[in-house]
From TrEMBL:
SUPFAM superfamilies (UniProt xref): PLP-dependent transferases (SSF53383)
EC number(s) from the headed UniProt entry: 4.4.1.8
Name of the protein described by the UniProt record: Putative cystathionine beta-lyase
Residues modified to N6-(pyridoxal phosphate)lysine: 216
Presence of keyword Lyase: yes
Length: 402
């Protein structure tokens, strides 16, 4: 009997299946690894060439560890499929994906437009490194829509969006901003970490570059740092050049953890989506909560755009407590059983993080006096999470009255 051939015909590059299918099948070829389902972790710096001709031609698929390995290619291919891009470049962190993308498009004398709701380390990079290189930044109201056109100068090169902002959750009108960027011949770079490629099709909505802090949902288990930059055809050459010039490369193990996380991303996100929305609307009804910031809630100011452009919401949102002394806030957050307090998110576990937008906002005003809290709703049982928060509110109320 003839055995089944291990290799199957390669799919044409243009085919893009439903995202859960791509998450399972993209970026792996069992026939290239003796039938094993997953690609191996290639660790390596030197790649040897068989002849002088081969060395001079440099036309082997791999030439040096920093420039990629089969493990890196596998994850790049899978993310690229999910984002619907032309090319994906991996980085050692999400922040490095942001900084590499910005550097790819600017030179001294240029100007960039950055949303005021941007991830704080992105803001820090603009205010320090870009400023030192002679690139100026204007922060704009995330809800500005097409009025963004008024802020464009002859020096403007890049419009940077992050929708929704990962602390304050304003939803941006990405199609309107993309239209303006196209008209003025600017590059539109978007940080798409919150929605992941599954819930927002950033490039199809007009962005040139979509960034993932893969550290979050793609890795999904809080055990690795990783970033990804996906470009359309127009942006690819510039990102390729900067990525190479800066010597950006992800770690081998981290890349593998990204691949491993990606396989279950659709399933995990669905649960994060459902649980977070349930807890967000439950919090809305609590007397201790002044406001919940979650675009999936019908009365959220960003709800209409979110519903129009996104296919889901992740597990991250914020809420503002009613004004109370610091001791009451501490009584709430310090003794939660299931909510860890810490930076980052996107893992399987629930997290809580107090923050204060007044400390960094420049283009918009934060109008709440109560303590703002960011929640990441993990994969735990929702009722257990509610019980935990309920006990926290009881401590909060007791401390407030004493
Ligand atoms: C966490 C985060 C980043 C940075 O990712 P790191 O891997 O921590 O460097 C960038 N953008 C957003 C929206 C993030 O939440």
């Amino acid at each position: 009997m003839i055995e089944e051939p291990m290799s199957k015909p390669t799919k044409p590059a243009s085919t893009r299946h439903k995202s859960s299918t791509e998450a399972v099948h993209s970026g792996r070829d069992p026939s290239a690894s003796y039938g094993f389902v997953n690609p191996p972790v290639y660790r390596g710096s030197t790649v040897v060439f068989p002849t002088l001709d081969a060395l001079t031609a440099r036309d082997q698929p791999y030439t040096y560890g920093r420039r990629g390995t089969p493990t890196v290619s596998a994850l790049q291919e899978a993310i690229c499929k999910l984002e619907g891009g032309d090319a994906t470049f991996l980085t050692a962190s999400g922040l490095q994906a942001v900084t590499t993308s910005l550097l790819a498009f600017v030179e001294a004398g240029d100007h960039v437009l950055i949303t005021d709701s941007v991830y704080q380390p992105t803001r820090h990079f603009c205010d320090t490194v870009l400023a030192r290189l002679g690139v100026t930044t204007t922060y704009y109201d995330p809800c500005i829509g097409s009025d963004l056109a008024a802020l464009i100068t002859p020096q403007t090169r890049v419009v940077f969006t992050e929708s929704p902002g990962s602390q304050t959750f304003e939803v941006q009108d990405i199609p309107a901003i993309s239209e303006i960027a196209r008209t003025h011949n600017l590059w539109h770079v978007t940080d798409n970490t919150w929605a992941s490629p599954l819930y927002f099709d950033a490039l199809a909505h007009g962005a040139d570059v979509s960034i993932q802090a893969a550290t979050k949902y793609i890795v999904g288990h809080a055990d690795a740092m990783l970033g990804a930059i996906t470009t359309n055809t127009r942006a690819k050459p510039q990102v390729l050049r900067m990525h190479g010039a800066l010597g950006v490369c992800p770690g081998s193990e981290e890349t593998y953890l990204g691949l491993r996380g990606l396989r279950t991303l659709p399933l995990r996100l669905e649960r994060h989506f459902r649980s977070a929305l349930e807890i967000a609307s439950w919090l809305e009804a609590r007397p201790e909560i002044e406001r919940v910031l979650h675009p999936g809630l019908p009365n959220d100011p960003g709800h209409a755009i979110w519903k129009r452009d996104f296919t889901g919401a992740s597990g991250l949102f914020s809420a503002v407590l009613t004004p109370a002394p610091r001791e009451a806030v501490a009584a709430f957050v310090d003794s939660l059983e299931f909510f860890g307090m810490g930076y980052s998110w996107g893992g399987y576990e629930s997290l809580i993080l107090p923050f204060d937008p007044r400390s960094y906002r420049t283009a918009t005003k934060w109008e709440y006096d109560g303590q703002a809290l960011r929640f990441h709703i993990g994969l735990e049982d929702v009722d257990d999470l509610k019980t935990d928060l309920e006990a926290g509110f009881a401590r909060f109320n007791a401390a407030r009255q004493s």
